[in-house]
Amino acid sequence: MKKAIFPGSFDPLTLGHYDIIKRGVTLFDEVIVAIGINADKKYMFSLEQRKKFIEDAFKDEPKVSVVSYKGLTVDFCKKIDVHFILRGLRNPADFEFEKAIAHTNRDLAPIETVFLLTAANTSYISSSIVRDVIRNNGNYTLLVPKSVRIKNSKK
Ligand code: ADP
Prior knowledge:
It is a single chain. The protein is built from 5 helices and 5 strands. It is of the alpha/beta class. The chain has a single domain (3-151), classed as HUPs (Rossmann fold, 3-Layer(aba) Sandwich), CATH 3.40.50.620. The structure holds adenosine-5'-diphosphate.
């Protein structure tokens, strides 16, 4: 059974992430969305909120599960016996950044990173832009799946 993890902060889940996960399940038997916990990072949404947004968005997709982890992504992969990391690419900046991480990960463990090119209509979307729109009371609903609600967010 081929399993992949899709690691990230998902603060919050966007239509860009959603597209990569949806396409990921056509390639893998299971896609584990893995929310990385970084104690030094300030998030807009709590871990519980971020997890719920993803779970609700994929409630009808049994091949998608959501977990959280601390530490190196490759160590987490080894722990749960996953050999593939799924990542999305939006632009040349993403490519350069992802290339360095993927090479480092290959040095650390025999784990392959699989890249999917973003869909054209979601390529401009990032969680940081979504957070900016939310903070400034803009219409963020165009950028995120329906499950993302901001009622309880700390703006
Ligand atoms: P990070 O904490 O690494 O910034 P994110 O949660 O923003 O993580 O992103 C996780 C993954 O989703 C990364 O591989 C990133 O490239 C990908 N991603 C984010 N936004 C998009 C998008 N609009 N289209 C495709 N992939 C995306």
